[in-house]
Known about the structure:
Elements: E1 25-28, E2 30-31, E3 50-51, H1 54-77, H2 84-93, H3 98-108, E4 113-117, H4 126-139, E5 145-150, H5 152-157, H6 160-169, E6 171-179, H7 183-188, H8 195-208, E7 211-218, H9 222-240, E8 244-249, H10 257-264, H11 272-285, E9 291-293, E10 306-307, H12 312-323, H13 327-338, H14 351-364, H15 373-383
Parallel strand pairs: 1-4, 4-5, 5-6, 6-7, 7-8, 8-9
Antiparallel strand pairs: 2-3, 9-10
Helix pairs in contact: 1-2, 1-4, 2-3, 4-6, 6-8, 8-9, 9-11, 11-12, 13-14, 13-15
Amino acid sequence: MALTKQVxxxxxxxxxRPPSEAYSLLIxxxxxxxxxxxxxxxxxxxxxxxxxxxEEIKQDILTVKAIQxxxxxxxxxxxxxxxxxxxxxxxxxxxPNQGYxxxxxxxxxxxxxxxxxxxxxxxxxxxxxxxxxxxxxxxxPSINRVTSYARxxxxxxxxxxxxxxxxxxxxxxxxxxMESGYDPLLQxxxxxxxxxEHIAGGKNVVTSGISLCEYVVxxxxxxxxxxxxxxxxxxxxxxIDPDFIRVRTLxxxxxxxxxxxxxxxxxxxxxxxxxxxxxKLFIEHLECHSNYVSDHITNLLQEIEGKLPQDKEKMLxxxxxxxxxxxxxxxxxxxxxxxxxxxxxxxxxNSRKHQAVEQIIHKLGQGNSxxxxxxxxxxxxxFI
Length: 384
Ligand code: SF4
């Protein structure tokens, strides 16, 4: 079956999207990050920010439409009666490029969701962004959900009427990297935004009717600022009351400015157990109505999830369960998690996995039952 011969070339893709947008169609409306200074972020370092023209973006959307039409045509010719899912599934096995792969995945998942890349789409003039969203939905009418990344500072500067205009055009959700609500930490990390701006931007989005997801980095405060990071971030989130709070754990790579701070001793990293104590304090201080989501592989306990406030005790009980384990069991879980063998605490009861992790600890610890923190961090960063 010729899946792709009758359809034209590809379209431009940016480097990242949130984990929850794995099945979304990716439409790149800007290139890179207009701020690009955060110490803990390497994604766009060395790349220049650019707005893309309306013509370029619309052409990409038309290319997606042409690929979709080609898939439909193939479906009719191959006896699938115009249904795109089976053809999309086959296309996933051998896509000619990443654009086709993204369209195939999006169609396979039902073709309902689109994510606008890159780091801060709100920086586009409101009328132009609204036009892009309207054009996207008119050209690909199966799309009923459009989301994007944004910076708090930009969301705070937009007038409420502008955000309402975007919501009416079809913008369903904004994903904002809050990272922390503690000003000295935001300043140290060069986030370029204050807690007050996070709150103003977040509240603006919530009031406009656009769904809001705020991201928090566990461990970002290191050993020196972990308490304030936990309590002040919770305080800011309580004021915003976003629909979602998503947590991920700090990882450090040599392409991040934070790497040099770590090597020089200016930044002292927290251990997994310390970060869990930080997460406990953070959750204890949350008094909002958000969905707390731990959908990132870097998080030690991904089972800490739930709707606030009703699931708070259940979430804290998962942390208590880990903290009340004997030290060797805690080490076993941490190592098992960091090498990708464990998903949740129940996996400790799997004797085959447990023994395999014991052997790894024996090997890494050169006969000792404990492993140093640096090795644990390397395991995590090597695994993701
Ligand atoms: S604003 Fe976001 S994308 Fe830009 S440097 Fe900071 S973390 Fe990275």
